[in-house]
């Protein structure tokens, strides 16, 4: 017999199967590069479906093994990782376009997310009921550190978005729209990250925390956990459907990156097509385009 969490798991499967299919469509539209972030939405939806299936299995079996229970908990806990990683991928492209030398801080954020993922997995394994009390304590500590790293990564991404809004003149119209999409999702992502932090710091050996995603207060989990991340995913997907392909990178149909909108508008030709500006921003792609332009002119 399914409890409230089991019933929520059924709803997760129903909700995330369409999300998975639409995410695949958005990813085909914008590209499968993991660095961009779209494909990570596919990974996130897959993890959510898998976690829901595992949770249902643990509740429908008369005597589920500790391995299945532990795996279900781990899959639930790591689901946040691809969502943060996707956000990092989106923000990174805008940040590198605005500040080409801004790679080291982005690598640092990536390291925070990666270590947070590792600690979440090890924390979930060590906190398993079949481990010793000492291992369980270590597992809870690992989960705490992992959640703090997720919060630190989120804080860095939020601060970076504020910085990017301060240099909006460096972006074309589509990129500004993309930045607005990311900023719209920011408060909902914060609540989701906060839920992970609270779940880690209220975990105890005597029993599950009310913030547990498999045995806590289902109403808290539904609001702070599932609803928040679902809103974030929907914002990203809707934004991805509306944005032109490659908009986050200054792709086709957008203004050339590095020019002002006034300069770009002056290059518009008849028929609505965009010609190559007389002066392009630096970079490999710009160099190649300039070479092609010179060949055409001569």
Automatic annotation (TrEMBL):
Residues 6-243 form the DUF7702 domain. This is DUF7702 domain-containing protein. InterPro entries: DUF7702. It comes from Sphaerobolus stellatus (strain SS14). The lineage of its organism: Eukaryota, Fungi, Dikarya, Basidiomycota, Agaricomycotina. Residues 252-271 are annotated as: Disordered. The chain crosses the membrane at residues 6-26, 38-57, 77-96, 108-125, 145-166, 178-200, 220-239. Keywords: Membrane, Transmembrane, Transmembrane helix.
């Amino acid at each position: 017999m399914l409890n409230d969490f089991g019933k929520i798991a059924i709803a997760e499967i129903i909700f995330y199967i369409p999300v998975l299919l639409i995410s695949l469509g958005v990813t085909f539209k914008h590209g499968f590069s993991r660095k961009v972030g779209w494909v990570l939405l596919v990974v996130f939806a897959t993890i959510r479906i898998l976690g829901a299936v595992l949770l249902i299995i643990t509740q429908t079996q008369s005597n589920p093994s500790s391995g299945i229970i532990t795996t279900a908990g781990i899959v639930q806990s790591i689901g946040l990782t691809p969502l943060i990683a996707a956000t990092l991928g989106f923000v990174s492209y805008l940040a590198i376009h605005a500040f080409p030398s801004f790679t080291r801080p982005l690598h640092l954020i990536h390291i925070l997310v990666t270590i947070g993922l590792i600690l979440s997995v090890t924390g979930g394994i060590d906190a398993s009921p079949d481990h010793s009390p000492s291992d369980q304590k270590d597992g809870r500590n690992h989960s705490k550190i992992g959640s703090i790293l997720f919060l630190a990564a989120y804080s860095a991404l939020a601060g970076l978005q504020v910085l990017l809004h301060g240099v909006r003149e460096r972006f074309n119209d589509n990129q500004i729209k993309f930045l607005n999409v990311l900023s719209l999702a920011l408060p909902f992502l914060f609540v989701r990250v906060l839920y992970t932090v609270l779940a880690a710091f209220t975990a105890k050996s005597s029993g599950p925390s009310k913030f547990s995603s498999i045995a806590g207060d289902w109403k808290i989990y539904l609001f702070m956990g599932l609803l928040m991340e679902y809103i974030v995913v929907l914002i990203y997907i809707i934004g991805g459907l509306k944005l032109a392909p490659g908009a986050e990178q200054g792709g086709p149909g957008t203004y050339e990156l590095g020019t002002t909108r006034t300069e770009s508008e002056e290059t518009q030709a008849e028929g609505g097509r965009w010609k190559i500006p007389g002066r392009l921003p630096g970079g490999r792609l710009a160099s190649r385009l300039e070479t092609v332009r010179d060949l055409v002119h001569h």
